[in-house]
């Protein structure tokens, strides 16, 4: 029994040595060395400090969309839709349709927090009173059809109220409820609007495809979107 064990140990050591040599070769290859030599720019986003490569810094600071960034971007907007070399003034417009705000809190304190976003004590209510915003509404799980919730496994007892399966379903329902051409913005209950929130609705109003998404250096959908959710929705 000792001889086979010795052979297995020797084979494992050889595999580790091979992997180590390959790693060293990759780390010190000309391509990696040239990338490491690129000047980096300090950038702060949502209190998170990071170093941006030149193409990332050009987008974040000047709105320039470098071909190298477009090629390796996982964002559909920059990779497949926008062919511009310079970001435009997508967030500037004159209101010419209904503007609506929607937020969602599954239940309990989350639902109360969502309702407070449309309450009289926050700036959203002032926007509605001034006519700058046509409606603000907070939804919760019980607003969704009970039959769909049961079929989709959406309830208060699982993480994310059913692993956030409710979000695309709820968004589609809300979009169908507003008039054609209106702009609806969804925001999480714990996010605060800026001092000039009209920019959000302008993004939607100016979007040629009807949907506006975001490209943040520090926040990406890839970190929050799970393939399991899409698979589960396909069965609902």
Model description:
This protein is mainly alpha-helical and 236 residues long. It folds into 2 domains: 36-81, no CATH class; 99-234. It has 12 helices and 5 strands. The strands form 2 sheets. The chain has a 3-stranded parallel beta sheet with strand order 4-3-5, sandwiched between helices. The chain has a two-stranded antiparallel sheet with strand order 1-2. The longest helix has 26 residues, at 2-27.
Keywords:
11% strand; 236 residues; mainly alpha; two-stranded antiparallel sheet; 2 domains; three-stranded parallel β-sheet
Mean pLDDT: 76
Largest sheet: 3 strands, parallel
**Domain unit count:** 2
- Category by helix and strand content: mainly alpha
Question: Can you count the beta strands?
Answer: 5
Radius of gyration: 24 Å
Order of helices and strands: HHEEHHHEHHEHHHEHH
Helix content: 40-55%
Q: Name the poorly predicted regions.
A: 26-35
- Shape, per Cα inertia axes: extended
How is the largest sheet built, in terms of strand order? 4-3-5
Q: Could you tell me the strand content as a percent range?
A: 5-15%
Helix count from the secondary structure assignment:
12
Distance between the termini: 54 Å
């Amino acid at each position: 029994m000792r001889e086979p064990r010795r052979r297995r140990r020797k084979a494992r050591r050889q595999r580790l040595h091979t992997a180590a040599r390959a790693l060293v070769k990759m780390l010190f290859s000309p391509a990696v060395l040239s990338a490491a030599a690129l000047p980096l720019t300090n950038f702060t986003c949502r209190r998170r400090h990071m170093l941006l490569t030149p193409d990332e810094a050009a987008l974040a600071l000047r709105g320039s969309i470098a071909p190298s960034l477009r090629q390796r971007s996982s964002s559909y907007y920059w990779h497949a839709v926008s062919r511009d070399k310079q970001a435009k003034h997508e967030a500037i417009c004159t209101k010419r349709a209904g503007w609506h705000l929607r937020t969602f809190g599954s239940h309990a304190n989350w639902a109360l927090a969502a309702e407070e976003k449309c309450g009289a004590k926050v700036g959203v209510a002032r926007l509605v009173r001034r006519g700058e915003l046509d409606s603000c509404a907070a939804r919760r799980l019980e607003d969704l059809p009970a039959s769909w919730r049961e079929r989709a496994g959406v309830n208060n007892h699982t993480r994310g109220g059913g692993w956030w399966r409710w979000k695309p379903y709820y968004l589609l329902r809300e979009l169908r409820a507003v008039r054609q051409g209106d702009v609806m913005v969804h925001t999480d209950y714990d996010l605060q609007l800026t001092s000039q929130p009209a920019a959000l609705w302008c993004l939607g109003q100016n979007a040629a495809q009807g949907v506006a998404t975001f490209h943040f250096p520090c926040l990406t959908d890839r970190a929050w979107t799970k393939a399991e959710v899409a698979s589960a929705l396909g069965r609902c």
